[in-house]
Amino acid sequence: MNVIETNNLTKNYGKSRGIVNVSFSVKEGEIFGFIGPNGSGKSTTIRTLLSLIYPTSGSATIFGKDVIKFGPEIKKEIGYLPSEVFYYDNMKVIDFLKYSASFYKKDCNKRIYYLADEMNLNLHKKIDDLSLGNKKKVGIVQGLLHQPKLIILDEPTSGLDPLMQQKFFDILKKENKKGATIFFSSHILSEVQKLCDRVAIIKEGKIVNLEKISTLKENNYKKFKIEPLSNMDLNYFNINGIKNLEIKDKTIKFMFKGNLNTLMKKISAIEISNIWIEEPSLEEIFIHYYSREE
Ligand SMILES: Nc1ncnc2c1ncn2[C@@H]1O[C@H](COP(=O)(O)OP(=O)(O)OP(=O)(O)O)[C@@H](O)[C@H]1O
């Protein structure tokens, strides 16, 4: 079953473009990454899914139900962490979380204490007195306290230190194992790579690619670094599929995409002292999506 489905979703803000014909689906139990540069339309897509804003055209369903017609019903099963969090600053954290929990028809107390403990969040401080990172933690607990079936996260890790980010990812993985579907929007590729099964790339309001992370890596260039025992002529590696070929301090470096057997035969015919073969990072795969078309 698809938990989220969008069909040519379009939002025109009048003078500025929001999103254009965005179509994708997120399967039940998936951790789905949504990445793109600043202003590409990530938040607009999320706000439309949550019916916080209405699309100009196109449609979207969550749990198979239209997001506009069934908005309030759907939202009970969604945990949402917005990119910027605003609170009733005068309240104590625990009072605020209990107030948030009162909107759901279930007892969320245990979860509040469990999540606060996991995130190392002091429940008895005033929200006003918290650092930005700790305010973010309040948002995380608030988003997860009702054990939602779908968790929608908009740039969730900004403000969290690396240890807390890891903790947060561990919590998300646990929720996912228990059955929650996760929609994870970010511009930090390395965290998408760590967490997600599939990823959609949005650029200038349009989806430009949607792939499994593993496929993206398999079908891409691999990085080779070879230390030959004797000096070599670079032309030796002049074969199909090689790019960025260079020799530096007797080390040969290149990127390769193509028939690995052809390349390995070439390499095995020379004497080498060392070899490194690396998968490209998501940054290296995606960097061209981030450059602006003039
Ligand atoms: N309320 C609004 N009124 C007018 N234009 C808007 C509004 N909200 C967003 N936009 C425009 O829509 C486009 C997409 O913005 P959006 O906030 O969805 O991008 P984003 O991918 O979430 O960016 P970021 O990573 O910077 O948060 C941008 O060009 C932005 O200027």
From TrEMBL:
Keywords: ATP-binding, Nucleotide-binding, Transport. Coiled coil: none annotated. Residues 4-229 form the ABC transporter domain. Gene3D superfamilies: P-loop containing nucleotide triphosphate hydrolases (3.40.50.300). PROSITE patterns: ABC_TRANSPORTER_1 (PS00211), ABC_TRANSPORTER_2 (PS50893). InterPro entries: AAA+_ATPase (IPR003593), ABC_transporter-like_ATP-bd (IPR003439), ABC_transporter-like_CS (IPR017871), ABC_transporter_ATP-binding (IPR050763), DrrA1/2-like_C (IPR025302), P-loop_NTPase (IPR027417). GO terms for molecular function: ATP binding; ATP hydrolysis activity. Signal peptide: none annotated. The keyword Transport applies. It comes from the Bacteria. Belongs to the ABC transporter superfamily. This is ABC-2 type transport system ATP-binding protein. It comes from Maledivibacter halophilus.
